[in-house]
Design brief:
By secondary structure, this protein is an alpha/beta fold. It contains 15 helices and 13 strands.
Length: 399
Amino acid sequence: MSTIFDVASARSHFPALQQSQVFFDNAGGSQVLGEVIDSVVKYLSETNVQLGGSYRVAKQSEALYDQGMQAAAKYINAGPDEIVLGSSTTQLMRNLCSALKMRPGDEIILSKLDHEANLAPWVQLADWLDITIKWWSSQNKQNPRLDAEVLRGLLSEKTRLVACTHTSNVLGTIHDIKELARTVHTIPGAMICVDGVAYAPHRQLDVRDLEVDFYAFSWYKVYGPHISMLFGRREIHDQIRSLGHYFNPSDTLEQKLGLAGSNYELTQSIPKVLDYFGADPAKTWAGITSHEEKLQSIILDYLKSNEIITVHGEKSASSKLRVPVISFTVAGRSSKSVVDAIQDSSNFGFKCGHFYSVRLIDEVLGLTSDGVIRVSLVHYNTENEATEFVKVLDEVLSA
């Protein structure tokens, strides 16, 4: 990709975009790069064997897998020993929960703004081990944010873990994870576990700069294969038990938590994602960020102008404050009826509901089970698509 963002060039890499369907549900999963698809097909066609063999094809297969692990670690500025891949972020969080050393009397702080993937494991662990849970929320019902001062008031010398989101998969609001991590680390031995699933499709990742202990995201929402990844800082590996067989090594995070879940053909395709962002990914991401800000401006400007629409989350279109994951409700209309009406009269594909952030929808936003209408765009969406969506939405609401 060019360092000057070119949406037409970007779209040419995605076979699924060569059809009439307009994908506005990208927070649930992005479309996949053609290069990734080709890589998976080639691997399965030519090198699909179990790792560990000494014959020619087995060596080729193992080399491809190792290259995938190296690329995955490089993408977030981590070491290969600090990552583990698995079927989903939900699964990896469960694995971590089962392996992290905790004691009765420890305290865990959980954010109510999170997807349940980063909540349910810790709730269950607390029940098993008689650990205290403290809930971290926001008093602002329209634009909830995770505030470091509120967090500071929840911390104690017993705090063992804080779990929170980088960006809400419903609200699109970006939280200052570095500030939150530094706040957590004022307590000796306390760790922070971040769900980065909704943030990763929109920004370059650097776990060293963020100063996090654990960070998870899904490659299938970052234009790659249907596989997810968890980072665990090397310095705290001694706090993680191995879930593997007793006779196997347990030196790396993959060996401790992987349980042979890092699908070979998908892992080896990850380098193709890095190739897509080019030799200077920082410049590529800068172009993407600028483009996405234009997309969210088009949609938010209309939503804020219509008095029967409530935008939930950050109202500003600034790329410093949010990503183009936009949720709203319409007075006097169910969310499902609006989605159905638009999809019946157009090619837009998107959803409504709670998106597995039930605590946010119910307890923070105070909404009904109907949830929110969510449109989630990424860099391969166009300004014309955003403008056309606004037009169709306006026609539906005016009918």
